[in-house]
């Protein structure tokens, strides 16, 4: 049940975040990079025991898969950055979210997804908060949900929102990697 909830949540969080040119795919690049590093570290007995993370035999293949997803995302971002020439759509965003969820389950780092995918968590929480608050009080917390649309309505330019979300995503990915030793 937890794995199913994680997969559904991750796929929908990435899908909801895919509202601005390059926003979701840029954040996926940071998340998948962090998980590629963790997959690599989990595949080596000595490194895994030093970091006190589970040794996962065969996670080298997950590293290759993660890096191939990373390469595809970087290539896609070239054409999806503002102004976008191509769009990801539901097929792309749901599959990327599913890939992130599956990787986190396979390397037993599901809880770390809350940190490394913190922007996705904030985006999905903004929708949940908006809906629940509106149903109970008939008032809105945000001008519009998800969160990136709230900032658009506040007058922020699209590229500013994307850059700031990417900065937060990069910082969260680094924080997640730095916590490996202290878990």
Automatic annotation (TrEMBL):
Key word NAD present: no
Ranges that cross the membrane: 23-41, 62-80, 86-107, 112-134, 161-180
A Gene Ontology molecular function term of the record: phospho-N-acetylmuramoyl-pentapeptide-transferase activity
Main location class: membrane
Topology versus the membrane: Multi-pass membrane protein
Coiled-coil region list: none
Subcellular location per the Swiss-Prot or TrEMBL entry: Membrane
Signal peptide segment: none
Keywords: Membrane, Transferase, Transmembrane, Transmembrane helix
GO biological process: cell wall macromolecule biosynthetic process; cell wall organization
InterPro entries associated with the record: Glycosyl_transferase_4, PNAcMuramoyl-5peptid_Trfase, PNAcMuramoyl-5peptid_Trfase_CS
UniProt key word Transferase: yes
Family: Belongs to the glycosyltransferase 4 family. MraY subfamily.
Name assigned to this protein: Phospho-N-acetylmuramoyl-pentapeptide-transferase
Higher taxonomy: unclassified sequences, metagenomes, ecological metagenomes
């Amino acid at each position: 049940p937890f794995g199913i909830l994680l997969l559904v949540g991750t796929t929908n969080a990435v899908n909801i975040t895919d509202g601005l040119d390059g926003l979701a795919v840029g954040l996926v690049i940071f998340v998948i990079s962090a998980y590629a590093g963790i997959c690599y570290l989990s595949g080596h007995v000595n490194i895994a025991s030093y970091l006190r993370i589970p040794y996962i035999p065969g996670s080298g293949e997950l590293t290759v898969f993660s890096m191939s997803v990373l390469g595809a995302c970087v290539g896609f971002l070239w054409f999806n950055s503002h102004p976008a020439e191509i769009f990801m759509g539901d097929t792309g965003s749901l599959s990327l979210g599913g890939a992130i969820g599956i990787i986190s389950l396979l390397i037993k780092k599901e809880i770390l997804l809350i940190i490394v995918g913190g922007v996705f968590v904030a985006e999905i929480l903004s929708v949940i908060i908006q809906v629940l608050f509106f149903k109970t009080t008939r008032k809105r917390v945000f001008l519009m949900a998800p969160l990136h649309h709230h900032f658009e309505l506040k007058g922020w330019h699209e590229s500013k929102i994307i850059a700031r979300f990417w900065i937060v995503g990069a910082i969260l990915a680094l924080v997640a990697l730095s916590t490996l030793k202290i878990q």
